[in-house]
Fold this protein.
Amino acid sequence: MRITRRQAAIGMVASGLAAGPARAEQAFAEGDWVVSKETTVDLVVVGAGVFGAWTAWHARRAGLNVRLLDAHGAGHARASSGGESRVIRVSYGGDPLYSRMAADSLAQWDVLSQRQSQPILNRCGVLWFSPAGDPYMAKSLAWLRAQRIAHSEGDSAWLRQSLPQIAFNDGESGFIERDSGALIASRAVQAVVADARLVAARYEAKPPVRLSNGAFGVGPFVARNVVYACGPWLPKLFPDLLKGRIVATRQEVYHFAPPAGADGQRYAPLALPVWADFNGGDIVYGFPELEGQGFKLAFDRHGPEVDPDTQDRRVSAEGIAAARAYLAQRFPGLADAPFIHGRVCQYENSSNGDFLIDRLPGHDRVWLVGGGSGHGFKHGPAVGARVARHVADSALPVEPRFSLASKAAVQKRTVY
C-alpha cells in the first residue's frame, strides 16, 4: 500500500510516534516512503523481544530517536521471549564472554525490577547439579570463586540435606548461585519497552529498502539505522543468508500443581531454587511455583525444526509422559501432581549456541541480532547495550563469536 505524506504524518501523530507532520517543502516521496527531516529517525528496531526491547532501551538512553516495531506486540505468546519464566544465572562453564554478560545483565534486570509495581526478577537462587567431576561444572565453580560470587556447594549428602524434595543420586555434586533466579518473561519484556517510553507498533517485518539519500525505508519510517531482532523469524526474512544458520526448533514446557498446604510449600521459591540437572550437555531444568503458575519443567534438548508462524502449539502427550517420568525419578513428591498447563515455544539456534550480532552484508547500518539458542533471554540487557554501541560507533569491531562468518549450517552445540 502506498503511504502518502498526509497518511504518514497523521498515522505517526495518532500513534504517538512523531512530534508533528512533515513540511511539504522539506519532503519528497520515494516509493512508499516520505523522506524528510521530520520523518527520518535515528534507529528503527524490528522485533520487540528481549534483544530488540533492550536495544531500543539503550539507544533511547544514549539520546537516539528510536522506533520499535513488532508484528504481534512486545512479549507476545508466539515469541521466543514470551511465556511465564526464564532462568537467569551467571555460570557458563567458565566462559568469560557469557559469564560476564550474564553478570552485567543480572545487575540491570535487578535495577529495572526494583522500579516495577510487580517485580520481574525473583532471586530464588539457581541450583546446578551433575555427576561429580563434570568439567563444565568444575569450570563454573572456579569462575564463581574467582569472581567472589555468592554461592554454596557440596556433594550428594549436602544436596540431600539442603533440598530433600529432590532425589539426588550417589556420586552427584552441585552448587547454588544464591543471587540468581528467575525472570517473569513476557512481563519483563513489556517492562523494558515501557521503561524506555516506547510503544511496540504493529508491523509485519520485511527486509529494508535502501533509499537514494542513504537511509532505509522500514514500515512507515525512514531510518538512518535498522536493527532486525526477530528471533525465529530472522531466517524467514533473510532466507538466502540465514537458512540453516539460524534454525527454529520446537520446545515444550510443562506445569504441574504442587499439593496444598505444607507439602506444597516445599516447591515454593523460599524452599526451592530454579534448578538444572546437567549431564554432559543433556539438561533438564525447572522452576519453583512462581505466581500461581505451578511447578515448571522442561527438557533443554533441541526439538524438531519448525516454522514459528504455523507450528501447532499444543503440548504433546509424549512430552507430558516424559515429564511425568522425570518427576517420578527426581521429584517423587510430584509424581502424581496434576498437569495444569503447558506451552510450546521455540529456540532460534545458531550452529553452536553463540549469538548473532553483525551487519547485514552490503548494508553498513543494518544489523542482524539473534541466535538466542535457548539461553539468550537473560542476556537481553548486555546484548542491547552492545548493539546500541555498534549503532552509535560504526568503527566498533564485531565480537568474532557473534559474527555472521562464524555461523555454520551444521548444528554442533557448544554453549550451554
Q: What stands out?
A: The first strand starts at residue 28 and ends at 30. DSSP finds eleven helices and 21 strands in the chain. Residues 1-29 have pLDDT under 50 and may be disordered. The CA atoms of residues 206 and 237 lie 6 Å apart.
